[in-house]
Amino acid sequence: MSMSDRFLSLFSKDLAMDLGTANTLIYVKKEGVVLDEPSVVAIDRRTEKPIAVGKEAKRMYGRTPENIIAVRPMKDGVIADFDIAKKMITYFLSKVYRRKRLIHPRIIVCIPSGITSVEKRAVIDSARQSGARKVLLMEEPMAAAVGAGLPVEKPTASMVVDIGGGTTEAAVISLSATAYQESLRIAGDEMDEAIMDFIRREHKLLIGTYEAENIKIRIGSAAPLQEKMTFTARGKDLVTGVPKAIVVRDDEIRDALKEPVNAIVDVVRRALERTSPELAADIYETGVMITGGGSLLRGLDRRIAEEMDLKVERAEDPLRSVVMGSGKVLDQFKLLKKVCVT
Fold first, then answer.
1. Which residue in 40, 146, 255, 277 has a CA-CA distance of 20 to 30 Å to 61?
2. How far apart are CA 178 and CA 46, in angstroms?
3. Residue 298 gets which letter from DSSP?
4. Considering the domain 188-258, what is its CATH architecture?
5. Three-state SS for 61?
6. Fold matches, 151-185+260-315 and 188-258
7. Which of helix, strand or coil describes residue 48?
8. Around Cβ 216, how many Cβ atoms within 10 Å?
9. What φ, ψ does residue 297 adopt, rounded to 5°?
10. CATH code of the domain occupying 3-38+77-142+322-339
C-alpha cells in the first residue's frame, strides 16, 4: 500500500460489494454487512432519474404506471444497463456513507468467474464513477469459499458451488488459487422463468417474476419431499384475461425445475471430471460446499450428494457468503493480494 493510500485509508472506510443479479450487499471494514437490498431501480421515463432503489423499487416491479419503469440493471451476474447500474451503485454508496467519511473508499467488487474483459471494465468504470478511489475485483467462487469458511490457503483442495440469481459458479480451490472453475449462466432467475413457463403451459395462467420466486421459496424442491406441499398461485388467466388463482403441488414445481437443476448438477459433475486425480481425491474426502440463494432450494444438497456420491454441505449463511468472504479479504491485506484478480 502506498503512502497516499495509507493516508486516505485513515479518513475513509474501505468496503466490499457483492453486486448480484438479485441483491446487492455491502460490507464495511470493521463494521460488517451494512446493506442488503434488491438490485432494482425505478426510473422516471420523463426525467430519467431514479425515484426508488432497492426494496422500495422491488415492490414497484411489474406494478408501475407508464411514466415509471422498474429495472434490474444486472443480468447473469454482470451489468446489463451501465447507466442505471451506476445510479444504483451511487445510491447504495451514498446510503452507506451518509454522515460518515468524506474521502472516497477503496472497493472490492465480486464478479462471476466467466465474465469478459469488457464486462469487467463496465464494473470497474461503474464503481469508479460512483465515487470509489480504487476498485479491486474478486471472483465470486473464491469469495464464497472464504465466506463459507473453507481452508482456501491450504494445499488441500476445496470445492465450492455458488448458486446466485444470475450465475452458478463452481470452483476447485487450493493454495489461494483456483485450480478449476466454471461459470454457468443458469441459476435462480432461470428457476423462476421455468416455473413461469410451466404454469403458463400447464395451467394457462400468467404469473409475475416475484410470484414465481415466491412459489420456488415456498414449495420448490430438487428431490422428493417427505410431506406433500401446495401453494396458491395468483395471476392472470391466459384465455379470459381476468385475475385467477390456482393450487400448484410440489411435485409439479419439482418437474418444472428439472432442467435448471440438472444443469447445476452437471456443473458439479464436470468440475469433478476435469480436476486432477489428486484434487479429486481431496474433494472426495472434504466434500462440496454449496452456497448462494439457489442453494436454499429444498433437497438440492441431497440431490447433488446422491448423484455424485459425495458429502455435500450448505454454507451456514448462504445468502451472505460472497460478501462476507470479500469482507474477510478486505480485513486481511496479505490474503487480499493473492485472491483479487485486479
1. 255
2. 47
3. B
4. Alpha-Beta Complex (3.90)
5. coil
6. no
7. coil
8. 24
9. -60, 125
10. 3.30.420.40
Residue 335 has pLDDT above 70, yes or no: no
pTM of the model: 0.88
All cell numbers assigned to 81: 444497463
Q: Sketch the domain layout of the chain as residue ranges.
A: 3-38+77-142+322-339, 151-185+260-315, 188-258
d(CA 171, CA 161): 7
| Rounded CA separation 24/38 (Å) | 6
- 317-328 burial, b if ≥16 CB within 10 A, otherwise e? ebbbbbbbbbbb
pLDDT computed for residue 100 by the predictor: 52
Contacts of 47 (CB under 8 A, 6+ apart): none
Show the cell assigned to 61: 416491479
**pLDDT at position 103, please?**
61
Confidence of residue 10 (pLDDT cuts 50, 70, 90): very low
Task: Report how far residue 25's alpha carbon sits from residue 16's, in angstroms, rounded to the nearest whole number.
Answer: 8
* Residue 37 grid cell: 437490498
d(CA 302, CA 298) in angstroms, rounded, equals 9
CATH architecture of 151-185+260-315: 2-Layer Sandwich (3.30)
Strands 205-206 and 243-249: unpaired
pLDDT at 4: 45
Q: Answer whether 223's CB lies under 8 Å from 301's CB.
A: no
Residues whose CB falls within 8 Å of the CB of residue 272, separated by 6 or more in sequence, listed in order: 280, 283, 308, 310
